[in-house]
Specification:
The protein is α+β, with helices and mostly antiparallel strands. It is 26% helix and 18% strand. It is elongated, with a radius of gyration of 34 Å. It starts with 50 loop residues before the first strand and ends in an 8-residue tail after the last helix.
Length: 385
């Protein structure tokens, strides 16, 4: 989805709205919910749901009650209730889908403590809000300098101003508990605003800041992933991935969330798959499993005395040998079973069109000396008319 401001410009290049997350239709923002009920009318006599979803900086979204009965649509800038003063945000969802989202986030619409929408933002509200947003980067830089001067073991990752400019929320990450009382005093004296410190995890930090993953796409947490499930190294073991921290870790420094995406498929395939720790007793000796391909249902075994020679066996063949071993019987040999799995290699590509060989330019060219000799021995034409 993309808003009209982000449509293609000249020469097929994207123009970009350059609004930094405040485009009118909210179609190119993070974690946007598609309103598939927008073109459907309510049944006769049914009142529209009186809650709206409002998005603030990055992916922070909250639900507000429309007590004044304002006619709100997606993309409207509204002034909302805050703990002190008011905040300014953008409406991202209206109607019955807000009820679905509140049920999903376990927010009770009958709760009387839920904040409300004050009004549609005036031009003065928008100007103050935009002015505060422009100051965030400079204040973040200065606050980091103050934290470094106080020798605090913390990382200030983001700053978010309240819409009226009276308060700023600083998001930080830290390994241990941090005493930032002096930091708050110094920042309040330097910036002249109320300060709120909010600790977030490393995954939440990556979600707020965004980025490009090793797959070449935008981070899942900053585009569509809303819940963070625990990821363990067992997920990598089940998928037979090398336990390399540099490859398994994402930008947040934790294990990649995508390790859980295909885990259920692997667990389903491993239900009736022999264990890789299984040992096969044959007349030629004891055999150990060296490698397994879950989806091809193939296991490679080698003898204890000859570990360099591997024999490919099907899953059913391994189960058959294990059943024989349970009866105190030994299989003949791995070679007898592996012979049945040998198949002729099929020609994957055939040059039926007559393409030239890739090595056609590697052949040395023969120099034609005859033409040069003829040119040297050829008499010159007379210039007399």
């Amino acid at each position: 989805m993309g808003c009209s401001s982000c449509s293609t410009g000249k020469d097929g290049q994207p123009r970009g709205c350059k609004n930094n997350g405040t485009c009118g239709s909210d179609g190119c923002n993070k974690l946007t919910v598609f309103d598939w009920l927008s073109n459907m009318a309510l049944p006769n006599g049914q009142k529209p749901f009186d809650f709206v979803e409002v998005r603030f900086k990055n992916s922070r979204k909250e639900f507000f009650k429309n007590t004044e009965g304002l006619s709100l649509a997606i993309g409207d800038i509204v002034a909302t209730q805050a703990k002190s003063g008011h905040d300014v945000g953008m409406v991202t969802l209206t109607g019955e889908l807000v009820r679905v989202q509140m049920s999903k986030k376990k927010v009770d619409p009958s709760d009387k403590t839920l904040p409300k929408v004050y009004r549609k933002a005036s031009q003065r509200d928008i100007d103050v809000w935009q002015k505060c947003r422009d100051k965030e980067e400079e204040i973040k830089k200065r606050s980091r300098e103050i934290a470094i001067s106080l020798n605090l073991e913390m990382k200030l990752s983001d700053v978010e101003f309240q819409g009226d400019g009276s308060k700023a929320t600083f998001y930080y990450t830290a390994e241990e508990r941090v005493d930032f009382r002096q930091l708050i005093k110094d920042m309040a004296r330097a910036f002249g605003i109320r300060i709120e410190m909010r600790q977030i995890g490393y995954r939440q930090e990556a979600q707020r800041l965004g980025g490009i993953g090793s797959c070449g796409r935008e981070l899942c947490c900053s585009t569509w992933l809303t819940d963070f499930r625990s990821v363990s190294t067992a997920s990598a073991r089940y998928q037979q991935l090398a336990l390399n921290p540099q490859k398994l870790a994402g930008q947040c420094g934790k294990l990649k969330c995508c390790l859980n995406y295909e885990l259920d498929t692997y667990l389903e395939a491993l239900k009736d798959f022999p264990s890789q720790d299984s040992k096969l007793l044959t007349k030629k000796g004891l055999a150990f499993c060296q490698k397994a391909d879950i989806f091809k249902e193939t296991l490679w075994f080698s003898y204890k005395d000859d570990p360099a020679t591997w024999h490919a066996l099907d899953k059913d063949q391994v189960i058959e040998i294990l059943e024989l071993n349970k009866k105190n019987e030994k299989a003949s040999s791995l070679e007898d079973y592996a012979q049945d799995n040998v198949s002729e290699e099929k020609l994957v590509f055939e040059n039926v069109v007559g393409q030239d060989s890739l090595t056609r330019f590697d052949r040395p060219r023969k120099k034609n000396h005859k033409k040069k000799k003829r040119r040297k021995g050829k008499p010159k034409a007379s210039s007399n008319a």
